[in-house]
Specification:
Oligomer: single chain
Structural class: alpha+beta
Largest sheet: 5 strands, antiparallel
Number of strands: 10
Strand order of the largest sheet: 1-5-4-3-2
Radius of gyration: 22 Å
Number of helices: 7
Shape: globular
Length: 274
């Protein structure tokens, strides 16, 4: 395992590159831009819409279009890639493409050598949380991950890079900004998880990786199924949830597991995240 600056990652013709989808931000920008123009033109075209309302709506929609345009530029820029599969290993970029304005001198890519990778598999995480729109109701959330198991027992270096990346800002002074869109997590001693959000089908990705890398059986973790799980498995889940930044889920499970209050559970989860 080694860490590189993004510009030092070799680009080869045969590499398989996985990027975030571009069509979504592009369509959103087009919708907001057209809506802003339509609102501004409504009074001029004879529509019964007061000018202050029309121009105010146009201004608001223009602001949304401006925000969307930044995402579009990032989506179509060279920094929009998450995983690059080369013949000798995987290059995994843990800096979000939305943070492309941060210093290029930072090490934001981890290289996982091919002989270090034990398996790559698809993981589905199903979680339950209160439904804010229904009294006493629940909503189910399912997320897809690419889980990379490594032949090693130390991800301290990667965990340190991820922690530093979460604390970085672009810009300076009152104009600092960043996106918390971070999809890579170091889990335990030898597992790297990549949330496969906005990337298309994780099963299709595994199909493209299969000729070069060992693909494991699909995995599933359901918080409802953890109710009767052994204590050791529950403790592992608390640690994994804390490492992924799913603080509320980790606190909820810690309270149930250890019979402690919210304050104690929160302190425990914060300690596990360090």
């Amino acid at each position: 395992m080694k860490f590189l600056q993004e510009q030092l990652v070799p680009r080869r013709a045969g590499d398989v590159v996985f990027r975030h989808r571009r069509i979504g931000p592009t369509v959103a920008f087009a919708v907001f831009a057209v809506a802003a123009l339509a609102a501004a033109a409504a009074p001029l075209l004879g529509f019964d819409l007061p000018r202050p309302v029309a121009y105010g709506s146009s201004l608001g929609l223009t602001l949304f279009a401006w925000v969307a345009s930044g995402v579009v530029r990032a989506a179509w820029g060279p920094s929009n890639w998450l995983l690059r599969a080369a013949p000798d290993g995987l290059y995994l970029k843990f800096r979000s493409y939305l943070n492309h304005g941060m210093p290029a001198s930072d090490e934001t890519v981890v290289f996982l050598a091919r002989d270090q990778i034990v398996t790559i598999s698809a993981l589905t995480r199903a979680t339950t949380r209160p439904d804010p729109e229904t009294s006493g109701g629940e909503e189910r959330r399912r997320r897809k991950f690419l889980r990379i198991r490594l032949d090693g027992d130390d991800l301290t270096g990667l965990a340190g890079h991820l922690t530093r990346e979460r604390k970085r800002w672009a810009g300076s002074g009152n104009f600092r900004h960043r996106s918390n869109h971070q999809l890579v997590r170091a889990i335990g001693a030898n597992i790297v998880e990549v949330e496969w959000a906005g990337m298309g089908s994780v099963e299709r990705a595994l199909g493209l990786l299969a000729p070069r890398y060992p693909v494991g059986a699909p995995e599933r973790i359901d918080d409802r199924a953890l109710a009767g799980a052994p204590r050791s498995e529950l403790e592992t889940q608390v640690k994994e949830l804390a490492a992924r930044g799913e603080t509320m889920a980790a606190i909820k499970l810690a309270k149930r597991l250890y019979g402690i209050g919210t304050t104690e559970a929160k302190a425990l989860v914060e300690k596990l995240r360090r």
